[in-house]
Design a protein that fits this description.
By secondary structure, this protein is an alpha/beta fold. It is built from twelve helices and eight strands.
């Protein structure tokens, strides 16, 4: 099965481990991701002003180009990219004025026919959790994993239509399918501070500390996420938090596709496990 794929800017640079592990793990499950040609940045954030159509142009162009490919779907794994593409597509489908202005500007005739999908959805709906359970031959039994969704995947619920916005479970279902143990905690959809890391380190450190402490207090040994910025904030901040809080317990923060790749016995060097600030390899060597 071949599906068009939009990696986004960060996955070709800082989050290369997310890109490599996504392509590799889905390939092992029979899904070939075919990268769109000549793609650009999606715009990173969805414009807050409802009539800011120029802020939707980049995403609209990506969607229109994807519509020229076969399959009717567009896979993207970065939570920000998925959020922007999904919401712009929703606007194009439901706002005739926006659709006309964007198409006139781009000289396209796109009406929202592409379905932006996330690899978590592909795993559950196209591959099937039972198939993944059979293919996950690496023993992860006893590994306690907390799933972190953040803000972008689930909100706003009416537009994203991605699981329960308050208590999503699709990532936990995948964790169970590959044999690891799910850790339930209270902060899995709480914002990590996002881009405030550029302006207000103290705010982000406080948010990150709350999230990590909540997970480790419930026994988590690792956290998984889908967002490159969330992963960076949760990972990079830990040394600074530790310096100010001697009792702080560090915890590896992985992409969910890295854990999936391990379960599918992909080579560790292909998953980018060496790119993290809190090294996950000591924990996973015996997993």
């Amino acid at each position: 099965m071949r599906i068009p794929y939009f990696p986004g800017c960060t996955l070709h640079s800082k989050a290369k481990g997310l890109d490599d592990s996504t392509r590799g793990s889905l390939a092992a499950l029979g899904i070939e991701l075919t990268e769109l040609s000549q793609w650009t940045c999606c715009g990173t954030v969805f414009p807050l002003a409802q009539d800011n159509y120029i802020g939707m142009v980049a995403a609209a162009r990506i969607l229109a180009n994807a519509a020229k490919e076969e399959g009717g779907k567009l896979v993207t794994v970065c939570s920000f990219c998925y959020h922007v593409l999904k919401r712009v597509n929703y606007v194009i489908k439901n706002n005739l004025e926006a659709r006309k202005k964007l198409n006139d500007y781009l000289e396209e005739n796109y009406a929202g026919e592409i379905e932006p999908v996330h690899p978590l959805q592909i795993c559950k709906e196209n591959v099937g959790l039972d198939v993944i359970r059979d293919k996950a031959t690496r023993n992860l039994k006893g590994l306690k994993v907390a799933c972190y969704y953040g803000c972008m995947l689930v909100r706003p619920a009416s537009e994203m239509n991605f699981d329960d916005p308050e208590n999503p479970t699709i990532m936990e279902e995948l964790v169970s399918a590959i044999g690891a143990e799910v850790v339930e905690y209270s902060y899995k959809t709480t914002c990590c501070g996002s881009y405030q890391i550029l302006y207000d380190n103290d705010l982000v450190m406080q948010k990150v500390k709350e999230i990590l402490n909540s997970a480790t207090a419930k026994g988590a040994e690792a956290i998984i996420t889908s967002c490159p910025l969330c992963q960076f904030n949760l990972d990079w901040s830990q040394e600074k938090i530790f310096q100010k809080n001697a009792g702080f317990q560090k915890i590896p923060v992985l992409y969910f596709t890295q854990l999936l790749g391990l379960a599918l016995e992909l080579p560790q060097e292909s998953l980018g496990l060496d790119q993290h600030y809190v090294d996950p390899r000591p924990l996973l060597v015996g997993a």
